[in-house]
Amino acid sequence: MRKINPKQHSAEHILASVFNELFKARITDTRFKDKKVRCDFHLNLNSPLEEVIQKAEEETNKIIAKNLPVTYEEGKREKLVDKYSLHRVPKEIKNIRLVKIGEEIVTPCRGEHVSNTNEIGKIKIRTFNQIKPDVIRLTFVLEN
Ligand SMILES: [Zn+2]
Q: Is the pTM of this model over 0.90?
């Protein structure tokens, strides 16, 4: 597997968290390809897609600009399952590593990340469309 850019990877976690908080959306797929990152979200679209995208981009950049530290917590699934959302972790995985961006954004992940959000830059959502009634697809890039 090709190595994922830690900046893009960290930005994806923040964006996914923002979509979840603002729109109850769940990220269902992510593809990293050079400078672009493509993400699919499952959600019930209650307002125009343009507004959703603009809000998500703004909120993500606000969080990035907070210069949040990125830390890790590792533990047994049984201990973490009540505290965190572990739906994306296959059931057979018993030892889980969580990446924490600030205190609020906690994602099970073994990838590489930045050590502070100030390394990410800014996200810019370049394209977006509704690919199914309840699925939107977007691509974002990072700018300095
Ligand atoms: Zn990650």
A: yes
